[in-house]
Design goal:
The complex is a heterodimer of chains A (about 250) and B (about 1000). Chain A is built from 5 helices and 9 strands, in the order E-E-E-E-H-E-H-E-E-H-E-E-H-H. Chain A is an alpha+beta fold and about 250 residues long. Chain A is globular and about 60 Å long. By secondary structure, chain B is of the alpha+beta class. The longest helix of chain B is centred in the last third of the chain and has 34 residues. Classes of the chains: A alpha+beta (about 250), B alpha+beta (about 1000). Chain A: One of its GO terms (cellular component) is nucleolus.
Chain lengths: ~250, ~1000
Amino acid sequence: MDLISDQGLRVDGRRAGELRRIRCKLGVYDQPDGSAYLEQGHTKVLAAVYGPHQIRGSRTKALQDSVVINCQYSMATFSTGERKKRPRGDRRSTEMTMLLKQAVSAVIKAELYPRSQIDVFLEVLQADGGNYCACVNAATLALIDAGIPLREYVVACTASLANGKVPLVDISHLEETMGGPNLTVAALPLSGQIAVMEMSQRFHIDHLEEVTQLALQGCRDIYKILDKAVKEHLLETGDFFPQLESN
Amino acid sequence: MLTSKTFLRKTKKGNILKIVREHYLREDIWCGSKVCSECCAKTDDQVLDENPTIACTKHNYGHYLVLDTNVVLDQIDVLEEDVLKNVIILQTVIDEVKHRSSTIYKRLKDVIGDGRRKFYVFVNEHHQDTYIEREQGESINDRNDRAIRTAALWYQKHLKAFPTQKDKRKGIKVILLTDDRKNREEAIKSGLIASSVEDYVEQLTDAKGIGDKLSKRNFTSDISEKDATYPSHLTPAQIHDGIKNGQLIQGSFQASRENYLEGQVNTEKFEKPILVQGRAGLNRAIDGDTVAVELLPEAEWTAPSDIVLQDDETADPEELNEKENLIKEVKVVEKRPTGKIVGIVRRKWRQYCGILQANPMVGSVRNIFVPADRKIPKIRIETRQYELLVSQRIIVAIDSWPRTSRYPLGHFVRALGKIGDKETENEVLLLEHDVPHSKFSDLVLSFLPKMPWIITPEDLKQRVDLRGIDICSVDPPGCTDIDDALHCRPLENGNYEVGVHIADVSHFIRPGTALDNEAASRATTVYLVDKRIDMVPELLSSNLCSLRGNEERFAFSCVWEITKDAKIIHTKFHKSVICSKAAMTYEEAQNIIDDKSQNHSIAVSLRGLNSLAKILKRRRIENGALVLASPEIRFQVDSETHDPIDVEAKKMRETNSMVEEFMLLANISVAEKILQEFPECALLRRHPVPPLPNFDPLIKAGRNQGFEIDVSSGKALADSLDRAHKSDNPYFNTMLRILATRCMMQAVYFASGMLQQEEFFHYGLAAPIYTHFTSPIRRYADIIVHRLLAACIGADKTYGDLLNKQKTQECCHNLNYRNRMAQYAGRASVALHTHLFFRNKIQDEEGYVLFVRKNALQILIPKYGLEGTLYLVPATGQPTANFVYNEEDQSQRCGNIVFHAFDPVTVQLSLDRSNVQHEKLVLKMVKPFIKDFSVPSVQANTGDAVASDDKMDLDVPQTLPEVETPSKRKESETETAQSKKSKKKKKSKN
C-alpha cells in the first residue's frame, strides 16, 4: 500500500498537509484541579492536573526555587487492538513520561511555586497513532483548565515522509506501521521554540528540514484549534472575559 | 465529513481483532471533465474530453466509459489499445486490481499515466456523494459493484448539467462496461447504460482485430466428471486449511524443461523439491505458479524419469496414456518425495511469445499457440487472422484453464514480426527475458549533459589532474564503451604506482533523475551477438563516459603503491581528469609487450602491469580461486547483413588476464573501503559456497573416469581439477571444469547490512569481500558503488535511498534479476545465431558426450560451444538400433559399442527446416558407426545427405532451448573482466 496515492490522497483520505479531526473538551472532571479530553482522529486521551500542592512523599524532593512536576503516562488495557496486560511501567511509557515532563516543564512558570508540586496524569483511552502528541495537547488544555500560569501553549505534532519525497503531517497508526521514519515535535507555536524533538528512525539530512517545517506548521494549526476550544470553554463556564463575546 | 471503516481481522495467534479506521470523505474531488464548470479542478487535471468521439454504431453519442473491476483484470489487453479513450477509472477498481494482481495494476497505471489515452482516476471512495457503506449481509464484491454503479450514476447526473455543443440538451453520457451479468442488470435497472466489453467492442467501427484480444475467461460450459481432463482444484478455503494442518504443502512449481509431464515443487518444508508427474499430478499448474501439493504415500514415490519428452501434436488419448506409463517405470534407487498438485494458490501467468501451430482447417477460428519457452504448455486461442499470424511470432496471454480443456485458453495480444527474421527473433528473446529495450524517453534524454561538453575550471578544481600520466586502455576489438584504463610507473623507492581509472558515470547520472531511474530499472547493458542494448543513452556510453584514446575524460581513480612482489603499500581513491594515451585491443597490447624493441612509456607500463598481474594471479589461485570453463565462442559477423559467417572459440591472451587481475584488485579495495565507511548499506557481491549435493554429478562423472574430485573446499576443488588430466582426451579437463561450473551457485549483489560478515565470501574468487566498481557504463551496481565511494572520500553528497539498507536490498534484487536475464538473453542470442549459421549447412563436427540419459545423449560440441541432444530412442518410426541403458556407470550400450560420459564422438549437424515454424538443430551420430542408426559422413557422400535424412526420421524435437540450458548452468563468474570481455567480444566487428 502506498502512503500517498497518485491523486495526492493518503490512506484515510486526507491530503499530505491535513490534520486529523481534533475534538476537545476542558473541565471534564470535578475531582482534579484541571482536566481535559482530547480526540485526534481515533486517538483519545484524558488528562488530569492536580496542584500546585504540597510535596507528596519525601520532603527532600522539594526544590527551593521551583515547582516539582510529576508526570504519569499510561495506556488503558483496551486502548490498542489487542488487549495489553501491563499498562504502566514498561520502557515505552517511562520514556513517554520523561518526554512529557520535558514538554510541560518548558511552559509552566515553575519559579512561581517553590517547594510545591504539580501532577499531570495522562491516560490513553484509544491509541491510533500520535499518542504523545495527543497527550501533550491534552496536558496543555488541562493545565489551562487548572489555571496554572503558562508561558504559552505547548503543542505537539508528528510528521513523516512518504515515498521518500512527500512530507506528511499528523501520522495515524496505520501510516506509522506502514513504514517511513517518524518525527515528533513539541513546540511553543507563538515563539517558534521547540521543546521536544524525537525521531523513530534516521532521516536523511536533505529531508529533515522540510519535515520539521511541516511538523511545526502542524503545531501552529493545532494551536489555533486548541485556542478556539479554550475560548469557547471560557464562554461556557462564565463571563470572565466579556470582550471575547464581541469577537 | 468523517466516517469510519470497521472490520474484523484475525491475528497470527488466532485472536480476533476489531480494527477501526478513519475514512475521510471530501468535497474537493473533481469529476475531471473539460465540460464541467462546477468542479474547480486545475486544467491539468481535466483529463476527459469536451467532445468525446468514438466510432461506435450503437452508442453514437458522446460518452465516457466507467469500467468494472473484472473488465480491467481480464481485458487489460483491450484497454491497452489506443482506440479506447475517455475512460473513468474508479478508486474502488484500482484498489481491487492492486489487491488481485500486481502486474495488471502496473499495466493499468501505465495506461493511466499515458496522457493521450485520457484515463481519469476518480477517487469515489473518498467523495462525499459516492461513498457507500457495506450493508448488513452484503459481500465485499457486491458492495464494490454497488459502489461502481453509484459512482457511474453520480457521473450521469453530474454531466447532465453540462450540455455539449453537439447535442444541446443531453450532455455527455456514461456507459458502464462490465462482464458481470448481474451487475449489468442492476445497472440498467437503476437507469444506467451498461454493456459487456464484447458487445461494446464489436460495435466499434474503426478497431479491427481488437476482438481477438478479448479474454475468453467466461468460457465455462457445464462440466461433467466424464469429460473433464483434469481433477478439480480445491477451493481457496480448503487449501488454506490444508496448509495449516499440514496435509498440503505450499511451494512454487517449476516445470521440467525436458519432459512436459514432469515438474517439481520447491517448498520450504523439504530440502529436496517435491516431484510431480503426469497430467493429473501437474493438474494445470504452469511454471512459476504458487501451488498446493499433497504428498503421496511413500510407497508411490518415484524418481525423475531420465527421458526427454515433448508435447507433440498428438491429441490421441491412448498415446498419452502410453507416455504417462513410460514415466511411471519406477526405479528403486533415488526415490524422491512425490506429490500431486491439488490447488493453485497464486497464478504467475505472464504474456508468452511463440507461434501458431499449423492448422489444417482453413478458416478455422480456433488455433493452438506454441510458446517459445518449453516449460509453458500450448495455449488455445481464437483468432480470425490465422492467415496473417501463422507466419509471425506472436504474443499471447493466458486467461483461464478449465478442467475440460487439455490446454489453457488464452487470447492474442500482438504480433512481433515474421518468423525467422533476425529482428523478430531478437525481439522475441528480449521479451522472453524481460529485457527493457525501448528507446530512451525524451524525459530521460533531457538529463543528458548539453553538447558540446567541455571541462570547466571548476571541474578541474575538484579533481586530481592526471592528464600528464601515460594511461592506456585495453579492450576487445570494436569496443566503444571503454570504462576502464590503467597506468603503471616506477617510483623512486623501487615500488610501482599502479592506477585503475574507471569512467566517472556517477558524475553524469545524478540520483533521483529520470535518467537514474531508467538506468536502475535496466540495471545492465545486454550484449547480444549483433546488438547491444544500452543501460545508459549512447551519448554517455560511447562518448562522454567512454575513456577514449587522446580525449580528456572524467575518471574515478584507484591508485596503489605496490612493491615489486605485488604487496600493496597503500591505496588511495580520488576523482580525476585523465587523458588516455592509447585505446588498444588485447592483441595490440600483447604485441607491444612481446615486442622487445619497443621501449616507450606505454610499453614499459604494460610490462610492469603484466609482471604484477602474474604474481597477483598466482597468489589468488594459491588462495583457492577457481579456474572454471564455459564454452564461449565468437561469431564472425558479416558487416552488412549481420549474418554470422564463421564461428571461433574465443582466445585468451595474457593481456586479458592482466586487465582482469587489476579489475579484481580495484573491486576488492573498493569493497573494503565502502564497507568500512558504510557497514549497513554498502552494496557488495557475494558468491555463496555451493551446497555439497550440488557436486554429486561432478563427483560421479569424475569417479567413472577414475578421478576423485575433492569438494571439501574451494582450494581442494581447484587442486583436484588441476590433477584430473587424461592423455588420450585433451578436452577432458575442460569438460570437467564445465561440469564444475554447473555445480556453482549464482553470484549475487546484496546490501551489507542484510547479512553476517561470514556470508560476504566470494567462493569463485576466494575473496572475503567483493563488489563491482569497474564497469559503471554497463552495470548499475557499479554506479551505486561509485556514489558510496564518492561519499566516503567527500567528493559527493549522500542521499536518502543510498543510506537505506532496505532500499539498497530492493535495488539488489532487481539487479540480480536483470543480470540473470541478461545472461540468459545473451546465450539465447548465441543459440539463435548458431541456427542462422547452420541454415543450408550440413556439417560433421567433433563432439563429446557430456551426459548419458535414458533415451538420449547430451553432446557438447566445443567448436560452437553448443550443447545438443542426440536421441537414441526415437518416439515413433522404424526399428532402430537397440540401446541398453546402464544406470550404474551411466552408459548406453549398443552391440559392442558403449557410450560413456566424456567419450569423443563425431556428429552431423544440420538444421531441420521441414517445419518452417519451428526450425530445429538436428544431431546425428556419424562416428562410431552403428548400423541402422548412424549416418554416413557428409564428406563421404554429400549428395545423399538429404535422402538419408528421410530414412532416419529421427524426429528430433527442437533443440533451441537445450543448446544452452540456463537453469542448469549456474555459472560462477570467473569474475568481471573475463566474463565481461568475452561478452563484449561477441559484438560485431564493424
